[in-house]
Amino acid sequence: MHEVNDAISHTHPVMEEYTGHLVGHAHIDLQWLWEWQEGIVFTADTFRQAAKFMDEFKGFTFSQSSSCLYQAIEEHYPDLFAHMKKKVANGQWELVGGRVCEGDTNMISHESHARHFLYGQSYFRERFKKTAVVGWEPDTFGHTIQMPQILKMGGCDYYYFCRGGKDAPLFWWQGLDGTKVLAFDEPATGSWYNSDLSEKNFQELLDFEKDTGSKDTIWVYGIGNHGGGPTREQIEQALAWMKSGNKPNVKFSTATQFFKKLETKDLSKIPTVKDDLNPVFDGCYTSHSEIKQLNRQAEALTTSAEAVAAVASLGGFKYPGSAFRTNWEQIAFEHHHDTLPGSGTHPPYERTKTTLGRVIAEDKEIITRALESMVVKLTPKQGGLSLMVFNPTGWKRNGWIETYLVKSGWDSGEDLDPANAVVEAPDGRESRVILLDKRSKFARFWAADVPAFGYRAFRIKNAEGPRIMAADVSVEWPVVETDKLTVKFNQDRGTIDSIKVKETGRTFGGGLGKVEVHWENVQNMSAWVLGKVDKFEPMRLVGHAVASSADHANVTFRYVLPAHNAESRPTVVVQTFRILGDSDEVTCQVDCDWQAVGTRARPNPMLRVAFANPMPGTTATFQVPFGAYARPTNGREFPGLQWADLSAPEAGIAVLNDSKHGFSAESDALRISLIRASFEPDPVPNPGKHTWHYSIVPHERGWQNARLTQRAAEFNQPLLPITVPFDAHGDAPHEFSAMSVSADNVVPTCLKLAEDGSGMVMRAYESLGVPANARIRLGVPPTGGNWVNFLEDRLASAAVSANAVEAVFRPWEIKTLKLALPRRR
Ligand SMILES: [Zn+2]
């Protein structure tokens, strides 16, 4: 076949059997080496020119993704938008992508993935009455393993991309759950997303057939990055090819037409790829630390706020659906592949900080108002101080609540003595209250069994019987001992030497929580690519302190990184390890005043925190969107979400985090990258103070045994308390769950109201890779229910009874349940 191809010239009659699908395109980076207002202007110029060419050249086509671009044109250039709408309607203008923008897929939450498609496709449907069916991520830096299922749930059957491929131009891409999409890897054909048109395209046709069996291929052409699109010369070149004989068929086409044509062909030759398309730019999992943290907070708070508001709406609270949509759209905008990855210049990030800060503030306000609407409907028990604790996650959980035990000035009841108090649950069971500060009456109490997507009211009162004693914490420096753990610190190194779990007698040693300075060699594209590390060393310890009280111990280590060049000042890091009396994990707060500035002159520092491998035969697994994925233990940096784990068959160590994405594993340690001194394109990406948290979780057996997905979600989405007014009077129950799932391996990711206002939506996924039969228990009897996709389109009816829905999950399956609820009076 190869010889035959070589014998065919590009003007041979046989070429008429081949077809090149011309897809005009302009790659648009929303903000990168420019700010968004510049992006708006060149997007308008690009779109105006494309629409004009459509008038001038019959049949000329153009394809564009990203609902946020269309939204901007609608807002700022309504006349152009009206012109574009006609072109979309007549098929010359193709909507692709289906997402809010071409954004990162590795570092965004489960729900962010769903909302990209929900709001991107909803916008396309509302304005154009069309749904994009081709996923479109030409420049996105890598693609997560569950993307095939995410695409299908988002209405897309196909995927067009350029980075992270496996050298196959066309393949079936299979996700963890078995879902497959047809994926086209442009550079594997020798081309790129902003290619020119030349005779080289004809050779691509022959090569593509050799690899795939298809005589049709796609030619994406047009100037890009800073907009542009097809030029007059390119269009005229295409028209000239169309006129001359003995050439391949050349036609103005769309990505959709190309993929649909492919599906009519025998594709038995193409491979199936059962892997993610990573890593691409490993520096991007860490660069611009603050933006990643703000994204994580905005995602977590919006998810929590939706759950609170959805439950509160059952009692009449007006669900702020449009505010949530705006918040998600703005979060999704900042996922753009030069924003969240940290590869932009500094000015755009000032806007990003303002946007995400506003989202966070609004979510907090919604949470407060929704909690208020529920708490006024309770009648507290007489005496003491009552608090309602809301659980924004979809499983029953326990947790410490910190609050001020200050009663209303109008409460004439008994005086509450915070030093001698207990907390009482609705079932009468009592738990501990720990006074943390006498003057302000700041205290911590144990909130037990707070129902899934619901709340429980607790009363704090003076203890009548014998006091419930705090779980013991004793410090015999350098050892901190509780009922559950023996934690031995190393005061010379500023690390944890070992954690012994008393229940099993197992010791996890070798050094945990070691802050290291990794010196990255200088190279170009420093924000994108980790420099080669020839040298790393522990950060220099300069002091420690130990404080213990009531039921916990705080161990603080202080480290310094001296200025490494004339631009830098000394960087100070403080790690505060906290050991609670009855906890089986050790949490750490990292306060970092980052003053290192990278230059081209010499290697630049990156901070990592290391956790020694507990035992030989270890495998590394990192959480990924809607899943978990094994990684090689070769030191290579890979992206992950809220947890990373090193486990041998008998036991392992996991680390939860609230803001990090760059993880690496070696045979001797798991490392989390904290911050970098990249210098290009932003010379000073993350100066100043940062606070991050992680938690060390030793566990028996593999990661599947440690409920890591739930624990990490709890670490990122805390319980939400509110004081019950002492004179509130209502008939609301003292505990309530709107929805819960019986199977431990099925993890809910959201509870919200349906976009069309017709009920409640809950999404969950199977999180361990094993099948599940789950019973979803309902707090309110529904009038019906359906399984839907991310767009909330009906897929199948659900087996709904008065108080439950039965559900079967295949391994790693994502399911979305939409329940119809009785109309409120
Ligand atoms: Zn780009």
Task: Describe the 3D structure.
- With 825 residues, the protein is α+β, with helices and mostly antiparallel strands.
- The chain folds into 5 domains: 12-278, 7-stranded beta/alpha barrel (Alpha-Beta Barrel), CATH 3.20.110.10; 284-375, Glycoside hydrolase family 38, central domain (Substrate Binding Domain Of Dnak, Chain:A, Domain 2), CATH 1.20.1270; 385-470 and 718-723, Immunoglobulin-like; 477-714, Golgi alpha-mannosidase II, domain 4 (Beta-galactosidase, Chain A, domain 5), CATH 2.70.98.30; 738-825, Immunoglobulin-like.
- It is built from 13 helices and 46 strands.
- The strands form 7 sheets. Strands 17, 18, 19, 20, 21, 22, 27, 30, 33 and 34 form a 10-stranded antiparallel β-sheet that branches. Strands 23-24-25-26-35-32-31-28-29 form a 9-stranded antiparallel β-sheet. Strands 11, 12, 13, 14, 15, 16, 36 and 37 form an 8-stranded antiparallel β-sheet that branches.
- Helix 2 crosses helix 4 (78-89) and helix 3 (67-76) crosses helix 4.
- It starts with a helix and ends in a 5-residue tail after the last strand.
- Residues 1-5 have low confidence and may be disordered.
- Residues 27, 29, 139, 225, 337-338 line the site of zinc ion (ZN).
- Zinc ion binds next to loops.
Oligomer: single chain
Spell out the CATH superfamily of the largest domain.
Glycoside hydrolase 38, N terminal domain
Morphology? globular
Quantity of strands, as a count? 46
- Helix amount, in percent? 10-25%
| CATH domain topology of the largest domain | 7-stranded beta/alpha barrel
Count of helices?
A: 13
Count of spatially separate domains: 5
Alpha-carbon distance between the two ends: 73 Å
